[in-house]
Amino acid sequence: MPSKPLKKAFCNVSFNILGYREDNEWVALALEMDLRGYGKTFEEAHKELQDLVNVQIGFALAKDHPEMIFKPADPIWFEVFAQSRHTCLAEMLKPSHNTAHSDYEVATLQIPAAHVIKALRDQIKQADA
């Protein structure tokens, strides 16, 4: 059975990512999905999170439950993100920019292209068959 086409390609949509240290590793939290990636560095945690986001989007669409994509993290994490982003911007604007790492990192994660999401959705549907 052919899969339903995606109604519209995602365009310029990204998730806000808050990175923080937990024990001896970094956590990358997608605020709009309440998903976490882990790694020795923020970059590793961010990469793992990207893989998890892709799988979650594909799974939600394969099950015809797109509402499973968006599950916001606790509001406190949005507050920490906003404060961390503000601090990061303020530091960047200082004449002597300090590049020392803080306890938090902020980033974004681009939603994958429509053809990538379709491929993930189709893979999950095939695995279920």
Give a summary of the structure in a few sentences:
The protein is of the alpha+beta class. Helices cover 43% and strands 21% of the residues. It has 3 helices and 4 strands, in the order βββααβα.
Features:
alpha+beta, elongated, 129 residues, four-stranded antiparallel beta sheet, 21% strand, 3 helices
Principal-axis shape: elongated
Please give the domain count: 1
Uncertain segments: none
The count of DSSP E runs of length 2 or more, i.e. the number of strands, is: 4
Strand order of the largest sheet: 3-2-1-4
| Largest sheet features | 4 strands, antiparallel
* Average pLDDT for all residues: 86
Derived structural class: alpha+beta
Number of helices: 3
Content of β-strand: 15-25%
The helix content, as a percent range, equals 40-55%
N-to-C span: 11 Å
Order of helices and strands: EEEHHEH
List the helices and strands and how they pair.
Elements: E1 14-22, E2 25-30, E3 35-39, H1 42-62, H2 75-93, E4 104-110, H3 114-128
Antiparallel strand pairs: 1-2, 1-4, 2-3
Helix pairs in contact: 1-3
Plain-language structure description:
- The chain is α+β, with helices and mostly antiparallel strands.
- It has one domain.
- Helix content is 43%, strand content 21%.
- The chain is built from 3 helices and 4 strands.
- The protein has helices at residues 42-62, 75-93, 114-128; strands at residues 14-22, 25-30, 35-39, 104-110.
- It has a 4-stranded antiparallel beta sheet with strand order 3-2-1-4.
- Helix 1 crosses helix 3.
- It is elongated.
